[in-house]
Amino acid sequence: MRIGLASIRFDRRGGSERRTWNLARGLVEAGVEVSIFAAAVEEPDFNAEVNIVPMASGPSFLKVSSFRNNLLRALSGRRDIDLVHNQIRPFTDGVVTVGGGCHAEYLERMGSSFNFLNPLHRLVLKMEKERYRPGGCRAVITNSEFSKQGLLRHYPIPPEKVFIAYNGVDMEKFNPVSTRLKRAEIRQKYGLGDELLALFVGAGYRRKGLQTAISALGYAKEMEGNVSKIKLLIAGKDDKRPFLKLAERLGISDRLIFAGHVGEPESLYGAADIFVLPTKYDPFSNSCLEAMASGLPVITTVQNGVAEIIEDGSSGFVLKNPDDAAGLAAILQYLACEKARNEAGKRARLKAENFTWTKTLQKTLEVYRKVI
Predict the structure, then answer these.
(1) What SS3 state is found at 197?
(2) For the chain (length 372 residues), average pLDDT per consecutive 10?
(3) Domains of the chain by start residue, with CATH
(4) Contact at 8 Å (CB) between 21 and 11?
(5) What is the Cα 282 distance to its own chain's centre?
(6) Residues 6+ apart with CB under 8 A from 312
(7) In whole angstroms, what is the distance from residue 291 CA to residue 18 CA?
């Protein structure tokens, strides 16, 4: 069996990209022949055919449109490929993994109606309408029930063609022992002592809920105990200026540390005490699962697919409202207690152990066998 994996980027820099990378590696190890079709490629350290698909420069909509058209040309005549597995976007009528979720659902959740004028949004919505119809793509893989229901709310795709394959996590790379080996080094790097440290990992600060996390620190500074001195380490690239202004208004600008993009985030989990991601929309956050595997208590929201695998108040904490900064601060105060924090972290690790890339691979192979 030969599978074509189609993705604009093939690397390990983002959550969906890491999922694709791990899938490709797993397929090769399972004896499946893999052909990668991408515009930008990090050379794989496993045996896979790499095809560079040209992509225009310029605005995002032009890049996506040109990649789709050139991908279809690259695939024409490739009779050796049994199935094309699209990553993130529905470029062809093969299988699609919507790692970032349904775009129509994303726009609705984010309240971005004005952005429908953006040509990129119009293009992606057109692609979804073409593929997510009866007789369109052969199957869709989502990474949570939350993501699946969002897709079915917007498109008449038959439910029996939508499958759930939860993301996995590298249990060796992300574990409470190895991630803490550089705890002192990382804390020194960012000018930290023994302060309570919350960690936020994610690009797209507004969608990921950074404003709620910062506002929670504003509430926390008025609380008793060490939570009043809690600091927030922020990893991921975005415009930090509006968030710095918010912190200045709250009088907590000295509590924020912007680390930018961190290629190997496992050391950050080891340096932190608590993980926070009060996201407004996240089909399934890899960073939350990585934090859980690293033994950190995770605070997220019902608008994150990860909430499906968390027992609220036990293996993690789930906010009903992504804007509930006061509620987030109250959970931070509870987790300021070392005993409560350690117990929640242990339960988080045990829960994460049920989610491996091997299970993700097995579920994906089941989908392939159903449609080929």
Answers:
(1) strand
(2) 96 86 96 97 95 95 96 94 96 93 91 71 94 93 97 95 95 92 94 96 94 98 95 96 97 96 90 97 95 98 97 96 98 97 97 96 96 92
(3) 2-168+356-371 (3.40.50.2000), 178-352 (3.40.50.2000)
(4) yes
(5) 7
(6) 318
(7) 15
